[in-house]
Design a protein that fits this description.
mainly alpha; 565 residues; globular; two-stranded antiparallel sheet; single chain; 1% strand; two-stranded parallel ribbon; 4 strands; 21 helices
């Protein structure tokens, strides 16, 4: 089958935007000021309910062939009346919500998909029956939260007596921490050896260079068509599904039993607790491997993680590093995550988080602490820009996925920096990115600027979801850059720097998912579940990287168009 010429591919986002605008009036409640569909409308309505790329692989990629683009536009045209009806229901539900004084949750997250269901069942809303239907839906969704909302958290901690009680409990828990007198290297050598055994055994067996390279492989991935001989294109949806199915059938192949034993030794020996406790002691040396990786892996902006305060505000766009967050910020992220209605009531959630925030690594379950240790070992050895083979199967599997990204390949080719700035790590032998000068402005060594870590924690069982974070891993969650990126070229330079410090984005997102599992009392049960978690975090960070690349390219395109005009 001949390859699809790359010149005929169209960005799926542009196809959706054109088709949406062509639907005409009636979609204003689901659209932005310029008439384009809202981001949540695309994520919650267009993709899962109209285009349904899981059932139509040719629509799953970021780039569509002309044939796939026509198919997507046709599906949106066919569903136009239902989307207009859903927009009418959304307007009605918001009006009823205000009348009932319901304030919990984001209306778009809560109501978009329910409005689509109402449109499919009832068509456009027609009074007086529609008013009663809307009232029942609003009350049903409000009752489902059971008071487990950010507003309930604010009210709980706003009480002066409660705030004093929580502050005293934090002080007692912080004073009871197990701080070692004289820690050695972090982590310990035997813990690293066991972590390598787990990473070698839980990941899928090395498959070599699967799929094609170059133009043919790219065209197959975006078109969803099979390669000659029936081979599945590398990194396509079916390829990833087959990999996950193989992992569940035989986690790690022959090494599965060894990985299970090593994981049991790590948990039974309290190695996760020992790692977290060592981070509280003064002056621990980093033993993660590559030069420049701090002992805390970027989970804190300070040399030693500080004592958490009570706090009273939080924003997903400006969350501190995980171990620097207040109690309010930690509970806030849990309450905004899917599945929060299964959590305990807010007072119990605050009490549990008080103890958890003063526990090693900010986690209370030892299997989750060990998962962070193993994930940290994986993250510290990732080398998206390199060409060498990673130390374990897990490193090699994730490096292969990243190196197939066109943006990563371009960054690897950029071996001369216009500023000739040193990189923050890797100049020594063996470090990821070794020998590659930095790309971008002076001061590019700051590795935390604009990196994603604001992902709401996952609920249990969501680790396999190969999808971006609900908030896209909002940038700006680490220390602020000295000067904000002013152009698409600066944004691309920031992306290049993040590829040289991949452990920061990975460990922060991993911590968010582990924290969510801890809140739901869901530990890690065996190497297969651990690999599903680690692999899911890798793919989530990769999707966030793709989104940031697209944003940078759009900025460059807009700048170029403006200059030409």
């Amino acid at each position: 089958m001949p390859a699809t010429p790359l010149g005929t591919l169209q960005p799926r986002s542009q196809v959706i935007d054109r088709a949406w605008r062509a639907l005409g009036p009636g979609l204003e409640p689901l659209s932005g000021p310029g008439g384009a569909p809202l981001t949540r409308a695309v994520k919650l309505l267009v993709l899962p309910l109209v285009l349904r790329p899981v059932l139509r692989p040719e629509l799953a990629g970021d780039l569509l062939t002309d044939e796939a683009a026509d198919r997507a536009a046709g599906l949106l045209r066919e569903d136009g009346p239902r989307l207009a009806a859903a927009a009418g229901w959304f307007t009605l539900l918001k009006r009823v919500r205000r009348a009932l004084r319901v304030v919990g949750g984001n209306p778009q997250d809560l109501y978009f998909q329910r409005c689509y269901e109402l449109a499919a069942e009832h068509g456009a809303p027609r009074p007086p029956d529609a008013d009663e239907v809307a009232r029942q839906v609003v009350l049903e969704l409000a009752a489902r939260d059971g008071g487990r909302t950010v507003e309930a958290l604010k009210a709980h901690l706003r009480d002066p007596a409660t705030e004093r009680s929580v502050a005293e409990a934090l002080s007692r828990a912080w004073g009871a921490r197990p701080v070692p007198a004289a820690p050695g290297a972090v982590p310990e050598a035997d813990a690293l050896s066991l972590a390598d055994t787990v990473l070698d055994g839980c990941a899928p067996a090395d498959r070599g260079a699967s799929g094609k390279r170059g133009t043919e492989c790219a065209a197959e991935r975006v078109s969803g068509k099979r390669a000659p001989g029936g081979a599945v294109p590398a990194d396509g949806p079916r390829h990833r599904a087959q990999e996950r199915a193989t992992d569940r059938r035989d986690p790690g192949g022959a090494g599965g039993g060894t990985a299970e034993s090593a994981l049991a030794v790590l948990v039974g020996g309290g190695h996760g607790t020992r790692l977290g406790a060592a981070l509280w002691a003064a002056g621990p040396a980093s033993a993660w491997g590559p030069e420049g990786v701090p002992p805390h892996l970027g989970l804190s902006a300070a040399p030693l993680p500080p004592r958490p305060g009570v706090g009273s505000t939080a924003s997903t766009a400006a969350l501190p590093a995980p171990l620097d967050r207040t109690l309010y910020e930690r509970v806030f992220t849990v309450l905004r995550a899917p599945g929060h209605h299964d959590l305990p009531p807010v007072p119990e959630l605050v009490a549990a988080e008080t103890a958890r925030s003063c526990s090693p690594l900010g986690l209370s379950d030892e299997s989750l602490r060990v998962a962070l240790l193993v994930g940290g070992r994986l993250a510290a050895g990732l080398d998206p820009l390199g060409t060498a083979s990673g130390p374990t199967r897990a490193h090699r599997a994730i490096d292969r996925r990243w190196r197939r990204e066109s943006s990563v390949a371009r960054a690897r080719r950029m071996t001369v920096s216009p500023f000739d700035a040193p990189i923050a790590r890797g100049a020594g032998a063996g470090g990821p990115g070794a020998g590659l000068p930095d790309v971008g402005r002076p001061g590019a060594g700051a590795p935390t600027a604009g990196l994603p870590d604001a992902e709401p924690p996952d609920r249990p069982g969501a680790d396999r979801a190969a999808a971006p974070a609900p908030d896209g891993g909002a940038p700006g969650t680490g220390p602020a850059p000295t000067e904000p990126p002013a152009s698409g070229e600066d944004l691309l330079a920031d992306l290049g720097r993040s590829l040289r410090t991949p452990w920061i984005a990975y460990t922060r997102r991993l911590w968010a998912r582990l924290h969510g599992r801890d809140a739901h009392a869901a530990g890690i049960d065996g190497p297969a579940e651990l690999w599903s978690l680690l692999d899911g975090v890798s793919y989530s960070v990769l999707m966030d990287h793709r989104a940031r690349v697209r944003a940078a390219l759009r900025t460059l395109t807009d700048t170029t168009s403006g200059s030409a005009a």
